Amino acid sequence: MSYTRRKFLKTGVKVFGSVMIFTYTLSVDGISLAQGTGSKIADKEQVMPHISVKLYPGRTEEEKQRLARAILEDVVDIIQCSSDSVSVAIEDIDPSDWKEEVYKPEIQGKADKLYKKPGYSM
């Protein structure tokens, strides 16, 4: 059974102001796992994932927009979530601050969580 191909089968939708209330059946590869009701705001699929990109300054706004779009497309395709669920932040970090703000806390300090390690060390 593959958990990468989840889908919600919405069986009814009611709209109350800006909150959408729906009933659903959760199925994985055609096997029904859960039924219930929820709201679009409270649905955990609507509040994840958040991707944070840190890089040296110098990229144009257009390059950052293209990068964010490419990340969004791949995230939606790979984890099968709605594009409305995804947020992407891009933060410029001065090279002189990289070691203290990025390398030590996020690369060295979370090495066990890195799926792609850098080819450099500091």
Task: Provide a descriptive summary of the structure in words.
By secondary structure, this protein is an alpha+beta fold. The chain has helices at about 60-80, 100-110; strands at about 5-15, 20-30, 30-40, 50-55, 85-90. The chain has a three-stranded antiparallel β-sheet, with no helix packed on it. A hairpin with a 2-residue loop joins strand 2 and strand 3 (about 30-40). Mean pLDDT is about 75; it is low at about 1-40.
Biggest sheet layout: 3 strands, antiparallel
Shape: globular
Strand content: 25-35%
Mean pLDDT: 75
Kindly provide the radius of gyration, computed on alpha-carbon positions and rounded to a whole number of angstroms: 19 Å
The rounded distance between the terminal residues' Cα atoms is: 43 Å
Order of helices and strands: EEEEHEH
Largest sheet, spatial ordering of strands: 1-2-3
Structural class by SSE content: alpha+beta
Overall number of strands: 5
Share of helix, binned: 10-25%
Poorly predicted sequence stretches spanning 5 or more consecutive residues: 1-42
Tally of alpha and pi helices:
2
